[in-house]
Amino acid sequence: MTPSSAVKAALSSQVVETPSWAYGNSGTRFKVFAQAGVPRTPQEKLDDAARVHHHTGVAPTVALHIPWDRVDDYAALAEHARERGLRLGAINANVFQEDDYKLGSVTHPDAAVRRKALAHLMECVDIMDATGSRDLKLWFSDGTNYPGQDDIRARQDRLAEALTAVYERLGEEQRMLLEYKLFEPAFYMTDVPDWGTAYAHCLKLGPKAQVVVDTGHHAPGTNIEFIVATLLREGRLGGFDFNSRFYADDDLMVGAADPFQLFRIMYEVVRGGGFTSEVAFMLDQCHNIEPKIPAIIRSVMNVQEATAKALLVDADALAAAQRAGDVLGANEVLMDAYHTDVRPLLAEWRQERGLDPDPVAAYRRSGWAERIVAERQGGQQAGWGA
Ligand code: PSV
Ligand code: MN
Ligand code: MN
């Protein structure tokens, strides 16, 4: 087994980015259940995110979604974050919630709609300039519902044209993260349905274009860790949108549905040098029925636990068993790490940093939940699911 000191040192370099929209009210298309005390403004979302970082010590960055987090002064918002020990993370573009986008955004058959969508993406890069964010996250709901509705190849050309324009607008240190999704809201054909399509576009664009893997965006049974291994091998894994799913894009707490899958993914990240490269570990979740802040704390901890187990894999023993063709022995090495209870090690890691060993309990004791219920009336919806 890897010594626990090495595991703890590696854990210290991990950052888990939380999404602003996870702090707001959300739901399904059937119902949004409002919760008391949720943020009314992007600033209040950052205040909640600061609590998550305060208790976990590994969540200093917060992703924004534009226009859900639209403000007049983004530099001031970045300052609000900085004063709370946070930084603004990925800027998530949104070209999927206006009537104009019924037939697509950057792939729309009408050039005027394409221009409007592109202008929004460019605005997101302007916002990155003001916030100091490194990453622009692009997810397109674009696709078609019926065979023959539009030309699959022409839509790819339009997509490439828009991505090229955005890529050329990026600054030296900025990146474009292209997210794929199997289906929904388009049900027949999605313009960026899989990692291969995202990868092909990124490859043409250049090294600042990277693929983002949302763990909820695959067909059942897909070997996500293979995708992770392959993208890392090609130097094109920009990051994750972590969440978990039982059926489709459920957006449940990462590690809740399948902690073993999360471990297998994190093992490939460790194996592929994902800790030394620029892989962003972001959450993309919504907490519809559970209290939001403790759920986000739990999610961050789930990522950390899976990471600790992945770091514990005895790489030498595994390689030796693999070389010897020892099928059961190799599997046992991996499972040994997975079955290790890493909670004591993580409690120790926290105490060494002056953190409470039990972040959720510490949050419950902190009085923050009661305070926001008393102080905030009429919380803001995350932006979707109404
Ligand atoms: C789409 O399902 C997605 O995963 C994209 O990342 C969006 O920006 C996000 O959900 C909104 O929650
Ligand atoms: Mn996502
Ligand atoms: Mn999603």
Could you explain the architecture of this structure?
Its EC number is 5.3.1.14. This is L-rhamnose isomerase. Pfam families: AP_endonuc_2. It comes from Streptomyces triticirhizae. It is a single chain. With 386 residues, the protein is of the alpha/beta class. The longest helix has 21 residues. The protein is globular. The chain has one domain: TIM Barrel (Alpha-Beta Barrel). It is 45% helix and 12% strand. It has an 8-stranded parallel beta barrel with strand order 1-2-3-4-6-8-9-10, surrounded by 5 helices. Strands 5-7 form a two-stranded antiparallel ribbon. Strand 2, helix 3 and strand 3 form a beta-alpha-beta unit. One manganese (II) ion binds next to loops.
Q: Topology of this protein?
A:
Blueprint: H1 4-11, E1 16-19, H2 42-56, E2 61-65, H3 74-83, E3 87-92, H4 111-131, E4 135-139, E5 143-144, H5 152-169, E6 175-179, E7 189-190, H6 195-205, E8 209-214, H7 224-233, E9 237-242, H8 259-271, E10 280-283, H9 292-312, H10 315-323, H11 327-339, H12 343-352, H13 359-366, H14 368-375
Parallel strand pairs: 1-2, 1-10, 2-3, 3-4, 4-6, 6-8, 8-9, 9-10
Antiparallel strand pairs: 5-7
Helix pairs in contact: 1-9, 2-9, 2-13, 4-5, 7-8, 8-9, 9-11, 10-11
The structure holds alpha-D-psicofuranose (PSV) and manganese (II) ion (2 copies).
The site of alpha-D-psicofuranose has 9 residues, from loops.
CATH topology: the name is: TIM Barrel
In CATH, the homologous superfamily goes by the name Divalent-metal-dependent TIM barrel enzymes
Strand proportion: 5-15%
Task: Give the oligomeric state.
Answer: single chain
